């Protein structure tokens, strides 16, 4: 990314680790329901379609909640750390409470609350990651996303054992405990100091450096401007005050004009400044990412239940989830190596992976043998988890850096 540089703050690697933990929790939640669905159908006395809708709420609400979370973050009313910690508490409580419910409707409500809590942690971390890693965002986002396949490997086995030992309520309590690990991870969040974003925007817009150092001690009474002219600091201070006053008066007049404008003109102004109008490539990217996430989450949720419905024992069916997660880890590592050493456009890589995964899904209904299912799950995990990196590639390729917050929420939404 020409003109952009990563932050020199060493804390940026803590942000990558935080993303790893939050992605681990998010995938642990989604994959665990794949193990629990057969038991939940019996406990809640419902059918698979209704229960599947309820169990899809964490991931669905995590994505749907990202757009309002983006607007809240943009407003500056709440810091990313406070928002992420609050979201971790909400999502964990939703999981724990769900273990003691007996009706599918309250279950869906609690899991929707869990999903919104996940969005409150997911988006702030992604935004901070982009702030710390302006140049290598796609690579570092891929490293943080390794938490997803790691969660897919480890947690389903834990939940399957907990279900046998402690029942459904105990398994959900343990899952809630795993989710609580997002709280200390979220506490580690902090905004970047001396972000290169402001410098990059100034360079693109042709802005000059401030003539007066706000942290200066006024030891120097004169300063040199670009053309060599010597200007006193008093004159510069007076000029700065006049510029600030002019801006305030202009904003007040603009606000007053907006109050008296017809609603159609105000709507037209809002539409002209809408993010999908200012960034048209973002609009073209949305259907692609929607289908990518739709397929990935459907595969995550129904991989294990599908094997059980084909007569595979539960203990063996759970292994499919771990095998798919293993494929995901390998795929992510290969993608990270490609990004680091070859520096190719990952959008092209994601197209190739999508073709392979589409082929495996096309022949999937014909597969009933467990060994063949294992091989297919590995290939699907490699492609599906690797294609998830494409959201970062589309974000960097479709929007300018100065408007990255709302597009991140829009892409996820």
From TrEMBL:
TM annotation in the entry: 20-45, 51-73, 82-100, 106-125, 165-189, 281-305, 317-341, 346-363, 369-395
Family matches, as Pfam families: MFS_1
InterPro entries per UniProt: MFS, MFS_trans_sf, Proton-linked_MCT
Region (Disordered): 199-219
Gene3D superfamilies per UniProt: MFS general substrate transporter like domains
Gene Ontology molecular-function annotations: monocarboxylic acid transmembrane transporter activity
Swiss-Prot/TrEMBL keywords: Membrane, Transmembrane, Transmembrane helix
Annotated Gene Ontology cellular component terms: plasma membrane
Protein name per Swiss-Prot or TrEMBL: Uncharacterized protein
The species this protein was found in: Strongylocentrotus purpuratus
């Amino acid at each position: 990314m020409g003109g952009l540089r990563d932050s020199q703050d060493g804390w940026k690697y803590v942000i990558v680790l935080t993303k790893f933990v939050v992605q681990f929790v998010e995938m642990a939640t989604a994959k665990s329901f794949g193990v629990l669905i057969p038991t939940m159908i019996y406990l809640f006395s419902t059918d698979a379609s209704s229960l599947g809708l309820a169990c899809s709420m964490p991931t669905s609400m995590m994505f749907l909640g990202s757009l309002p979370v983006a607007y809240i973050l943009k407003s500056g009313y709440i810091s990313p750390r406070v928002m992420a910690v609050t979201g971790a508490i909400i999502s964990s409580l939703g999981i724990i409470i769900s273990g003691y419910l007996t009706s599918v409707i309250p279950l869906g409500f609690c899991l929707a609350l869990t999903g919104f809590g996940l969005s409150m942690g997911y988006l702030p971390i992604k935004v901070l990651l982009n702030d710390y890693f302006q140049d290598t965002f796609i690579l570092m986002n891929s490293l943080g996303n390794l938490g997803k396949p790691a969660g897919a490997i480890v947690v389903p086995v834990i939940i399957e054992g907990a279900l046998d030992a402690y029942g459904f309520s105990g398994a959900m309590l343990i899952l809630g405990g795993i989710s609580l690990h997002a709280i200390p991870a979220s506490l580690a969040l902090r905004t970047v100091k001396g972000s290169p974003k402001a410098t990059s925007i100034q360079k693109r817009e042709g802005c000059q450096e401030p003539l007066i150092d706000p942290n200066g001690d006024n030891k120097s009474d004169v300063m040199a401007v670009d053309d060599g002219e010597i200007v006193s600091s008093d004159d510069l201070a007076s000029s700065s005050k006049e510029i600030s006053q002019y801006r305030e008066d202009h904003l007040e007049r603009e606000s007053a004009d907006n109050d008296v404008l017809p609603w159609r003109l105000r709507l037209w102004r809002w539409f002209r400044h809408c993010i999908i109008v200012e960034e048209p490539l973002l609009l073209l990217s949305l259907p692609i990412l929607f289908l990518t996430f739709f397929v990935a989450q459907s595969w995550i949720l129904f991989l294990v239940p599908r094997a059980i419905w084909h007569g595979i024992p539960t203990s063996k069916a759970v292994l499919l989830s771990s095998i798919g997660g293993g494929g995901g880890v390998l795929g992510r590592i290969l993608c990270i190596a490609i990004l680091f050493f070859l520096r190719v456009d990952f959008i092209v890589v994601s197209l190739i992976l999508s073709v392979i995964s589409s082929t495996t899904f096309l022949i999937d209904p014909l597969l009933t043998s467990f060994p063949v299912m294992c091989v297919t799950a590995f290939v699907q995990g490699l492609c599906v988890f690797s294609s998830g990196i494409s959201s970062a590639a589309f974000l960097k390729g479709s929007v300018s850096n100065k408007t990255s917050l709302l597009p991140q929420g829009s892409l996820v939404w």
